[in-house]
Amino acid sequence: MKAFGYEKHGAPEVFQEYDVPEPTISADQVLIQTIAVGLNNRERAEWENGRSTTSPYIPGRDVVGEIVKVGDQVSDLSVGQTVMTHTEHGYAEYVVGDLDATVVVSDGLTPTRAVGLITPGLTAYKAVKYFADVKPGQTVIVKGASGGVGSLSVQIATDLGAQVIGIASSHNEAYVKSIGAVKFVAYDQTDPAEELADTGDVVLNMAMNGAGTDDDIKMVKPNGVIASVAHQAPTTDKALKFVHIFPTNAMTDREAMQAVIDLMRDGKLDIKIGYTLPFTRAGFVKGHQLLEEKHDGRVVIIK
Questions:
Q1: How far apart are the first and last CA of the chain?
Q2: What CA–CA distance (Å, rounded) separates 48 from 10?
């Protein structure tokens, strides 16, 4: 089968097309024929910073496709269904779907929209529901509110009944308000930490690498919660709870994916798709070039 990957690192141009064996499935897995692939910054970091390999490495985590084979122990999925899966080696014509990370795509949702939802949806839903444990009526401040994870966090927290304040660049104000934020603060026009001092019951830091932890401390209320993608807990005398957002199975991928796809089906959740590219070497190279640049919206490969 056709797949795309690399044997060395350094730039998007390292991607090559390979002919690799079709994957085999176990009794509790399904085989999926790829329709759409979502690209993520994690994959950019892998080829940019990882080690060279002796055989082709096929990256990719986010796939929407059609089930073409089911394992003997699979009872709730069937051949012909369109599903979304959080997988491994997703830049390929066929991928394996684990039952705890595969859900049916609701009728009426395009593969492009569904695949754009997978990794940011998993991260945002687990951040809001599991790590921050957002409750109705709370004031939630979302940093990076215009990005993939941040924008979904705004919508998920709003659906839970929270009052959401979004922080992003000024040119994103209309968008962030359109997805549910009751207030918008432009970090390029004012100091959010001063304007929002002691305001948030919860501060969700979805900015790149969790930048600006000192600002998070200023914005959270005493005894509030900071949930951040930053790795290190802040040093402060202020009474607060700091939670590092990380991949976890305490809430399964399937549970989180089902929740976000249901919200999208019901018109309560949307994801900005910025680019659709072909399932070719040129498409994957261009997609990863876009990930290196300042880009607006998710990058999706369509087969």
A1: 13
A2: 5
Question: In Å, how far from its chain's centre is CA 269?
Answer: 13
- Using the structure block, give the residue that is written with the tokens 């350094």: 10
Q: Which letter, b or e, does each residue of 69-91 get, where b requires 16 or more Cβ atoms within 10 Å of its Cβ?
A: bbbeebeebeeebbbbbbbebbb
DSSP tag of 171: G
Q: Does domain 121-244 have CATH number 3.40.50.720?
A: yes
DSSP at 15: -
Strands 94-98 and 29-38: antiparallel
Q: Helix or strand or coil: residue 21?
A: coil
Work out the average pLDDT over 75-89: 97
What share of the chain has pLDDT > 70, as a percent? Answer: 97
Its pTM surpasses 0.70: yes
Among 85, 82, 38, smallest CA distance to 60 is for: 38
Residues 249, 101: contact at Cβ < 8 Å? Answer: no
Task: Say how far apart CA 52 and CA 50 lie, in whole Å.
Answer: 7
Dihedral of alpha carbons 284, 290, 291, 297, sign: negative
Residue pair 273/300 in contact (Cβ under 8 Å)? The answer is yes
Indicate the SS3 state at residue 197: coil
CATH of segment(s) 2-117+271-302: 3.90.180.10
- Name the residue type at position 76: D
> What distance in Å separates the CA atoms of residue 215 and residue 166, rounded to the nearest whole number?
14
Residue ranges of the domains in the chain? 2-117+271-302, 121-244
Contacts of 67 (CB under 8 A, 6+ apart): 30, 31, 32, 33, 77, 78, 79, 80, 81, 82, 83, 97
In the prediction, which pLDDT does 295 show? 85
Q: Is the pLDDT of residue 45 over 90?
A: no
